[in-house]
Amino acid sequence: MTTQLPTAMQAYVLHHHGGMDALQFHKDWPVPAIGKDDVLIKVGACGLNNTDVNTRTGWYSKSVSGATDEDNVTSEASDDPAWGGAPIKFPRIQGADAVGAVVAVGANASEGLIGKRVMVDCWMRDWDAPLNREKTGYFGSERDGGFAGYTTVDRRNVGVIDSELSDAELATFSCSYTTAEGMLSRAAVAEGDRVLVTGASGGVGSALVQLAKRRGAHVTALSHPDKHDILRDLGADVLLDRAPTDLGQALCDATGQCNVNVVCDVVGGPSWPQFIDVLARGGRYACSGAIAGPMVTLDLRTLYLRDLTLHGSTVIPPHIFKDLVGYIEREEIAPVLAKTYPLSQLKNAQQAFTEKAHVGNIVVVPD
């Protein structure tokens, strides 16, 4: 079913891998066609995430070994520039964290969704085998996303939301918080666990602080001291500098215990061996990012002699998005909205995002 809709919209479009010049703002991009299983959403806001930058620059390619910044851009010849290890199709509208109102639906979607306020579940699945990780894609990567006036998504990828939060506030959740909840689930974090969160001021990091506290864990957060007050308000029990010279000693001084039993890491880079060294015997490590660099050194004796478990976490089970919607509606977690920008200023928003001076998430809204 369709209603009277415009045929053109504003959109920020990625035309190739590269620097900011790869992004172009269009005022007359075609409104997407609605497939039989799709809903059409009028976008009210869309959050920024590391995956936007990493996909634009091609950082996911194994030819890149440095940190996630503008200096590490893969060549157009790379055959593994996206998160899934395969090329994406251009032109592509990025933006995973879309929030808005359903304005039209395809033949297989319920007309009752029209007018509903929804969040987008970023993980595209084979709905005949939704747990098959090999058959997944990501909204804004393998399919056009939310940096536009309108977007389409499969009817099974929307969550109707009942909340007094603004669209911009809701757009801080989906990607970061499902990523964080996936890490905590993979590491089986439970009440009484001592959890170390790296990169705690970012979108995933601040989500980890809140969601680990929701599970009853004791949380130590690593971030720049300028951001400690906000993280304390989110529930962090202990706050340390983002890269202590001696992490174990810093933990001893701050908590009286020189180790933790869970590390949730999105940083990697030169500090990584310390993250492993502070894990207690039988400890668990979960990783879903490497903003300081993907290449690290592991002493295998530490791994096996201390009975450690390492978890990579990317594709999450479907229930996590549904759980997240419930957490929001019950006000068990709060948005951390750093700043909003008009869609037409996406480049400025992404520049601010890469500078990492903020806490939480940056969001673009329609002009």
From TrEMBL:
Specify whether Ribonucleoprotein is a keyword of the entry.
no
* PROSITE patterns in the cross-refs: QOR_ZETA_CRYSTAL (PS01162)
Any one annotated GO CC term: cytoplasm
Q: Name one GO molecular function term.
A: zinc ion binding
| Keyword NADP in annotation | yes
Output the superkingdom of the source species: Bacteria
**Which keywords does UniProt give here?**
Acetylation, Cytoplasm, NADP, RNA-binding
Q: Do you know which InterPro entries this protein is assigned to?
A: ADH-like_C (IPR013149), ADH-like_N (IPR013154), ER (IPR020843), GroES-like_sf (IPR011032), NAD(P)-bd_dom_sf (IPR036291), Quin_OxRdtase/zeta-crystal_CS (IPR002364), Zinc-ADH_QOR/CCCR (IPR051603)
> Where does this one sit in the cell?
Cytoplasm
Provide the Enoyl reductase (ER) domain boundaries. Answer: 18-364
**Quaternary structure and interacting proteins, as annotated:** Homotetramer.
Q: What is this protein called?
A: NADPH:quinone reductase-like Zn-dependent oxidoreductase
Whose protein is this, by species? Answer: Sulfitobacter noctilucicola
